[in-house]
Design goal:
Elements lengths: L5 E7 L7 H14 L2 E6 L12 E4 L37 H13 L2 E8 L1 H13 L3 E5 L15 H22 L2 E6 L6 H9 L4 E3 L7 H13 L5 E6 L11 E2 L8 E2 L2 H13 L3 E5 L11 H19 L5 E6 L2 E6 H5 L10 H8 L16 H22 L1
Parallel strand pairs: 1-2, 1-4, 4-5, 6-8, 6-11, 7-8
Antiparallel strand pairs: 2-3, 9-10, 12-13
């Protein structure tokens, strides 16, 4: 059997997450259906040059990986291709690196390189595109913070993990009448904290997008106690700023973005100090990145892989696959990496949470800025006034 004349490459870059293997499988099966060979580069962009490291991919050696977490190709968010150190802070790659990548692509006869990653990894892909290297992008981030797509795969799995943790914390918190603080991922966007907080019955949700105070968080705890509820669940995104405006981070080792983490402990310590209530902290960390993908993420990631191949076949290079329900579409990569998708403080999910009595730490518990009943009564009153006016005119 003769090998296909054309070849598609794929790599996974940045932090790992559930669904990466589903993308690889989707791309490989689609490539072979269309008569294309497929190779996977190891350890993200690092496998493209000095030394070049890759393996041939086919339907046989990618069989059975659909439900596996992680990535069979490996990944890294460090090294020579680290292109961002913050939001929209692009670092130009060494031209010699780009020359090496271009040689690898040409020598292997790759007509399209599928780059799977988040904003930093896609910023690298954009520089490849500007250099004339044939690339397409696939969005991957558990933070769900790319504005060009409604959802990124990995997000649903991370939310499921955080929700399960809240379900477990709920029973132990109630049993011991404790305050439980759960710290989840979310550097610039609080989507995981918001969705898991609503799904897991949290009482307080602290986000990067909504300013908060310790006074209002403690007020919520006391308000619950006045209603006979002797425990409280608090969810905080790692990127939520302290009331003073600072982020809580660990040492970054002088490479890439600062490693956020530790805000959960600070919140718990301050609550215990102010209210003298027994408080505990749980930090999910990389548990949110591991394990098998949810059904939603498996389907979405598989579609992303298949449609990325379609873009290459159609010659639509320099574009990124995106999900705009119910369709899978694409946008130029440059548009995808220029804008973050953050939680709208006045959006539907936040409004619904406030209507349920969930606190975002920005108002006293008995002074909610959104009261669904008063809004409904106001709307009804306006409708009745309009109807009465219309009857008078008639």
């Amino acid at each position: 059997m003769n090998k296909p004349a054309k070849r598609i490459g794929i790599l996974t870059s940045g932090g790992d997450c559930p669904g990466l293997n589903a993308v690889i499988r989707g791309a490989v099966k689609s490539s072979w259906q269309l008569g294309y060979d497929c190779v996977g580069f190891l350890k993200g962009y690092e496998g493209l040059v000095d030394p070049v490291r890759y393996l041939s991919l086919d339907p046989k050696n990618t069989s059975g990986i659909l439900n596996q977490g992680g990535t069979i190709l490996g990944s890294t968010n460090k090294g020579r291709f680290a292109a961002t150190v913050g939001v929209q802070d692009r670092v130009e790659l060494d031209p010699r690196l780009l020359d090496g990548v271009q040689r690898t692509v040409e020598q292997l006869g790759i007509c399209g390189l599928i780059c799977v990653g988040g904003d930093g990894s896609l910023a690298v892909a954009q520089q490849f595109h500007e250099r004339g290297i044939p690339v397409v992008g696939v969005p991957k981030t558990i933070d769900n913070d790319l504005s060009a797509t409604a959802f990124t795969f990995g997000f649903d799995s991370a939310v499921a993990c955080a929700t399960d943790a809240l379900d477990r914390l709920h029973t132990t918190a109630a049993s011991h009448e404790r305050i439980m603080v759960l710290e989840v991922m979310g550097r610039h966007a609080g989507w995981i904290a918001l969705h898991s907080g609503i799904a897991g019955g949290a009482d307080v949700i602290l986000l990067p997008e909504i300013g908060w105070t310790f006074e209002d968080v403690c007020h919520k705890v006391l308000h619950r106690e006045s209603q006979g509820k002797r425990f409280t669940l608090v969810v905080v995104a790692e990127g939520a700023e302290l009331p003073c405006g600072n982020l809580v981070s660990k040492e970054n080792g002088g490479e890439g973005q600062a490693r956020l983490g530790g805000i959960g402990d600070l919140v718990a310590q301050e609550i215990e100090k102010r209210l003298h209530r027994e408080t505990r902290t749980a930090v999910l960390g990389h548990l949110q990145r591991g394990g098998p993908p949810t059904t939603f993420d498996r389907v979405l990631a598989t579609q992303f892989g298949a449609h990325a191949v379609r873009l290459i076949v159609e010659g639509r290079l320099g574009e990124m696959i995106c999900y705009q329900p119910p369709q899978i579409d694409s946008v130029p990569i440059i548009e995808a990496v220029n804008h973050l998708s953050q939680v709208d403080p006045n959006g539907a999910a936040v409004q619904a949470a406030r209507a349920l009595g969930i606190s975002f730490g920005d108002h006293p518990a008995d002074e909610s800025p959104f009261n669904i009943f008063s809004v409904a009564e106001e709307s009804l009153a306006m409708a009745e006034a309009v109807t009465a006016e219309a009857l008078e005119v008639s």
